[in-house]
Design goal:
- By secondary structure, the protein is mostly helical.
Length: 88
């Protein structure tokens, strides 16, 4: 759900589009419980950090798998079979 905001219809009308229960119940109320821009930014940064950590972990795992497969006596055949199954 988007934070509370005003919609201008282009013909002189402005309408409040509530994004929180507080403003939905009292559109003229001063208190809005929507997350602030700073809160939204902090959440986005946290999500990005978690994604970067997950990608780093995946990259490490992927490299370990490749090293293990290439060290296997049938490593070349395994890689060819994997490529064929992937359509590469």
């Amino acid at each position: 759900m988007q934070p509370c905001h005003w919609y201008d219809d282009g013909h002189g009308g402005r309408y409040l589009v509530p994004g929180c229960a507080t403003r939905a119940h009292d559109p003229d109320g001063e208190t809005c419980t929507c997350p602030t821009l700073a809160d939204q930014l902090a959440k986005a940064r946290s999500e990005i950090a978690a994604l970067r950590k997950a990608k780093k972990s995946f990259d490490h795992w992927h490299t370990a798998i490749l090293v293990a497969v290439h060290a296997h006596p049938d490593g070349v055949q395994i890689m060819k079979s994997a490529a064929a199954q992937a359509g590469v």
